[in-house]
Amino acid sequence: EQNVHEKINKQFEELIATLPSDKGAIVPTLFQYQGFWYPPISVFKGVLLMQDHFKAQPTDIFLTSSLKSGTTWLKAIMFSTMNRSKFEFATHPLLTAGPHDCIPYLDAYIIDHDVEALHSPRLFASHSAYSLLPKSVRDSPDCKIVYICRNPKDVFVSHYLFAMKLRPPMLPPLSLEEAFDLFCRGVCEYGPYFEHVLGYWNASLEFPGKILFLKYEEMRKEPVKHVKHLAEFLGKPFSAEEEKEGVIEEIVKLCSFEKLTSLEVNKTGKVAFVPEMQIGNENFFRKGQVGDSTNHLTPEMIERLDKIAEEKLKGTGFKF
Ligand code: A3P
Predict the structure, then answer these.
(1) Which among 15, 42, 102, 142 is least surrounded, fewest beta carbons within 10 Å?
(2) Strand ranges in the chain using DSSP code E only, listed in sequence order
């Protein structure tokens, strides 16, 4: 155990000195590793650990996403869908625990937990790009991956406002314009955004039974339909009786923005993905609206990002 950490620390120190770096929004500096931007906090070490040591089990389930694409919401939905026979809605764990306490980020969790000791099916989340997931996960014909994406303008605005709340006050201010320029150049935590989305999109075309590709906007429009489909994909379809009893609607209601934001745990609770950074749960809930970016971006910014999207997505068959 000690050896694994020593080895990773050494690998980390050597690597970090060789990687391209640029400005971060939440942390001062991001480092580009295998094409994607990471903060140099221990989660980056977690990625190295995860890549080197994680062994996929056939029953493993991964929730994957870039930042601010609806991860918190989907964590609540996947946790309550997978565990629906274990809990009553009136005393559900989500009433007293934040969604982030219910499904851990593997990249951070693996640093100081024994993932082998978890009961199956193991539920993990990760912001890692598809190409950076452990090889055993990508190669496993059985473990499942659910990816959620969101339109890049809303992702950027959500990310910027989130980052401004978490950015340490001793760092120089980062304007919306500068952060936007960084985002357009692909520089943001776990970015470039388009490459992140397309990595999972292409993989979902290649392995449709293994990777379910979801869109935040579509889930907002028809949550019941998508939760039903999600359960089928995860091998836990709702029975006719459950459907008649309104279990899907109950899950949707429990995980709704309105319900989760009304709970004390999501107003005052905190989560520490890595020991050096505690984040108030409230930061993961802002407006939960589709298209709020138009209230923050200029028409020129919208045009620039739309154009980048058009170029990046050309010929991929994918549309936001
Ligand atoms: P906004 O900042 O646009 O409001 P993530 O969980 O990946 O960090 O994404 C956060 C975004 O999802 C935020 O978007 C947040 O408000 C929204 N969100 C959080 N919980 C939600 C829920 N239960 N339903 C819909 N959107 C939710």
Answers:
(1) 142
(2) 21-23, 29-33, 36-38, 61-65, 123-126, 144-149, 211-215, 270-274, 277-280
What is the phi/psi pair of residue 136, to 5°?
-65, -30
Ligand 1 centroid to 63 CA: how many Å? 15
CB-defined site of ligand 1, < 6 Å: 65, 67-73, 154, 158, 255-257, 260, 284-288, 292
- The pick from 160, 265, 286, 295 for probing ligand 1's pocket by mutation, whose C-beta has the most ligand atoms within 8 angstroms, reads 286
Catalytic residue flag (residue 127): yes
CA quadruple 226, 229, 233, 239: dihedral positive or negative? positive
CB 138 within 8 A of CB 77: no
pLDDT in tens, 177-233: 999 999 999 999 999 999 999 999 999 999 999 999 999 999 999 999 999 999 999
Q: What is the pTM of this model?
A: 0.97
